[in-house]
Amino acid sequence: MPSIQRRHLFSFLLAAGVASASGAGCYGGAAGDGGSAGGGGTADSGPDPWSAPVGCASGAHYVGGANSRMEPGVACVSCHTQSGEGPVGILGTAYASAHDEDRCNGIAGSAYGDAYISVLDDQHVEVAQLPINAVGNFMGNEPASATYYVALVANGQTREMAMAVPSGDCNSCHTQDGAVGAPGRILVP
Ligand code: HEC
Ligand code: HEC
Fold first, then answer.
1. CA-proximal residue: ligand 2, atom 36 (nearest)
2. Does residue 67 line the site of ligand 1, with CB under 6 A?
3. pTM, to two decimals
4. What are the structural domain ranges in the chain?
5. Which ligand is nearest to the CA of 95?
6. Which atom of ligand 2 is nearest to the CA of 181?
7. CA proximity to 101, closest of 64, 81, 72, 65
8. How confident is the chain (189 residues) per 10-residue block, as mean pLDDT?
């Protein structure tokens, strides 16, 4: 198993705070909290994947154990840092639906053309591909460059996070409802 670098909790908190301040305009007010149940649809666009209901697309949940399939959807690095155990670096979960609940298993990477998280350095050159396992979880090291980017590649299609990654604790922002400006889960393209 590859060694995974340790990162101090303070750097995560700092990064999250910065993201909170700078992420406010990302959605131009469209990052609604999904409260409206029966709004009139927009005729000129397809179904919005971010308006999916809360649920569990895979229909399967975490069954316990501390391993690479643990706690899908929950902030991995925060817990590992607090408990002083478990890998840190880049860890998170990819989903087929935007608002799947905590501990709902994500996509099986193998069912999406060996889906992976592409890690890109500050020049947008890919430096790593983190495979997505049977419950949607992925993990790996943060790259050497202070600034880096990520994208989810599934079935040959890409969904890229526009801003630089503020923290490798992906699920801390990509929660069921979305936190710190994120629209929800890390969603397949
Ligand atoms: C609520 C706390 C908590 C959360 C959330 C959590 N973990 Fe862990 N994890 C632990 C603890 C504690 C250990 C160490 C347990 C042990 O070694 O017995 C651990 C260990 C691990 C290990 C190492 C297992 C080994 O054999 O050495 C992996 C891999 C792992 N976690 C992946 C993840 C991933 C991926 C996520 C998020 C999707 C995650 N964890 C979320 C608490 C957590
Ligand atoms: C501090 C909060 C935060 C963290 C941590 C974070 N993200 Fe994001 N993510 C966002 C925000 C906000 C957006 C939407 C704006 C953008 O794309 O820059 C986003 C967008 C995305 C998207 C594109 C979604 C779309 O609109 O199509 C992907 C994919 C993604 N993130 C993956 C990741 C991965 C993988 C990680 C962990 C390495 C991660 N994110 C960590 C906040 C975060």
1. 170
2. yes
3. 0.84
4. 9-20+51-187
5. 2
6. 12
7. 72
8. 39 37 32 37 70 98 97 98 98 98 98 98 97 98 96 97 98 98 97
